[in-house]
Amino acid sequence: MLEISNLIKRYGHDEPVLKGLDLSVEDNSVVAIVGASGAGKSTMLRCINRLVEPTSGSIKLNGTELVNLRHGELRRARRKIGMVFQGFNLIDRLTVMENVLSGRLGYVSLFQAITRRYPAADIERAFKLMERVGIAHYANKRADELSGGERQRVGVVRALMQEPEVLLADEPTASLDPRTSEQIMVLLQSLASELSLPVLINIHNVAQARAYTDRIVGLRHGTMIFDGAPADFDQEALDAIYGGIESPEDETATPQDGSQASGGEARHDAT
Description:
alpha/beta; Rossmann fold; 9 helices; Phosphate-import ATP-binding protein PhnC
């Protein structure tokens, strides 16, 4: 379980980017974080895995307070926080298998990491996960030879190799075509259920948030102004979050075939 209490993030003397956020996410739950660019979505995810240092507040993962951890304790805690990136963050010259196994770097010795001599159990797990997401036949192929959707699947498997207790996805579909983005959302939804894994997805595509998540959290200027079921995410909520302007990608998604929803554009939070 992920528990965030009164989370504040301020850069210098500027107005806080995050203003006292409170959020609890249960296992198996897929939560979409929506909001206009600059709302604080990416900052929130990066505070959870401590890529950005929170100014104050509490972030607990299965009872462990993450905010105060330092050095070795922080490294060990980060092993339990999987991250899927919009830009994939793969090493192009390495094979798919080598990229996937990099998810175990926090568990192996420096010698094993440098020589890429991973335990047999890690290699076996990598193959099983790659088979699960349909990329096992690319194991020995260089990462830069894959399509965007295939590269994102590699990123998902790499995160799962950490055996995470929570999975964070920062705009995982924004660089993909519409059909592929639907497939990635279905994959994340399925993995959350299969692995009893809480998943937080920072996403611009409102239609996909409605179709493939259990819960939607809406941010505006660093403040949570909506937290509820997709069915309750109505026009009033959209107007409150996006300021009355047309929300991005607000089309009808069809989970069965994924043919109607539009994929998100490659956009980032300003913060």
